[in-house]
Amino acid sequence: MQDIDTRYGAFRIPTAEDDLIGRFLAHYGEWAWDEVSFVASIVPENARILDIGACFGTFGLGISLLRKISHVCFVDANPAVIPFLTHNVTSNARISHTIRENLIGRAGIKVAAAHSDPGNIGATSFTPDASVQISQPTVPAIKELSDLWQEEGPFDLIKIDAEGMELSILDSHARLLSQGQVTLWLECNEDAQSLALCERLLSWDLKVFYFAFPSHNPDNFRHAATPIFPLAYEAGLLAAPRRQPVLDEKLRAHHCILRAISSVADLREALWETPRWGMPEWEGRDVPAIAARAGHSMRGEDFETFLTPGWQNGELIRDRLTALEHSTREALHEAHEQNTAQQQALDDLSARCQNLTDSLVHEQAAHAAAQAHNQKLLDTLAHRALALTAAEAQIQRLERELAATTANMLDPIAEAGKYLESTIRDDLRDKELQIDQMQSLVDYHSEQAIALQSAHQQLQNRIRDIEISTIWRATSPVRQIAERHPAIQKAARTGRRVAASIRNRYFKN
Known about the structure:
This is FkbM family methyltransferase. Residues 381-408 form a coiled coil. Residues 51-190 form the Methyltransferase FkbM domain. It is a single chain. This protein is of the alpha/beta class and 509 residues long. Helix content is 54%, strand content 12%. The strands form 3 sheets. The chain has an 8-stranded mixed β-sheet, with helices on both faces. The chain is rod-shaped and about 195 Å long.
């Protein structure tokens, strides 16, 4: 923010580069002074004024400089300007005044949070618009004009600059305003809202006037000669004035426009004939000079190349635009045909892609089913492999147990063989001794020889009984198993050698 000296006194404004009205105040030291001068000319003495959309307070303060005013109520709904408005009014007003932060309108109307152009705080609007950026997230409450009238009125003049909400404000106290007892000064822009506003005022049978004024006042407070916007005009509608409005000598010198409006068509024509912008070189020229420069601009000509060698009149921009539109339409038609052909090719390609996609989906489903089947088989094989592994482990365990059992069985057999061998050896030793004794006494002991032969025969029978015994046959499977186990084979061979040695040695006959 910055503090500057203005026509109204010491003013506080946003940084001039960041705001349009602040830029005007810094450059000219005033804002819309021709507007204030015109409205002040029809305001009665000691009037009470309601300034809706007061912004920085220039309108109400300006009126108070030109007329004896009894009271001004400054109203604005934009919280961003309230600090500036409060400072400017309280510092400079020499009249009775109030400052209100209110959004005025008809109850129930749809409103949005505050939004505006980034460089124009005075253009803050609360009308719904999805294309703009919200500057204040909170949607304010609406106060009807009739309620504000009860709290602050009555008023002789109501100025409304509400960025699209003017009609809603009028409707919120239409019963009183339609009687024509209050003068209205309303912003009028180049949009359909202005036509609707005019229609409403005429429907109340009010007298309506159109006033337009240039944004550059050549008699501005700072005497700045350079216009910010050359030939740019602002405008408003004056309804139910207490006295007939006229343009004084100064306003005529500033080329202000005043027209009585009796129909919406009159306003539409007035807006059409009001300049809203111009070239810098047009500023200060008379009408023929401006028309000449405008004609050159419409043909795309400039003074630097005017009448130089090879120069020729240019073609009107309108004709060039017509030719350009024609060629553009042809190009668009050709592009449309190409687009149609490409779209057809794209549709065909999409159909092929869809067919391929369907085939791929089918194949993926079949592949998934095959994978599921294969997985089931793998699970079955894995289960069987686990069962087989368990069976092999069980067989190995049984073989180990059988080998241990066989070894346990052969150990007693080996011990029995050793015992039998020892017993037979002892018996044979005794028999040999007896035979030796009997040989010497053979002639004398024949009966004893017969007994010995009988004993010999009994021993042979005993050996044969052993060979054909159940134990011997029972050990046959053991001998087969022993063939796979070296320890068992060794024990068996030892047993057979012992038996064979006994048989061969003692029972040859």
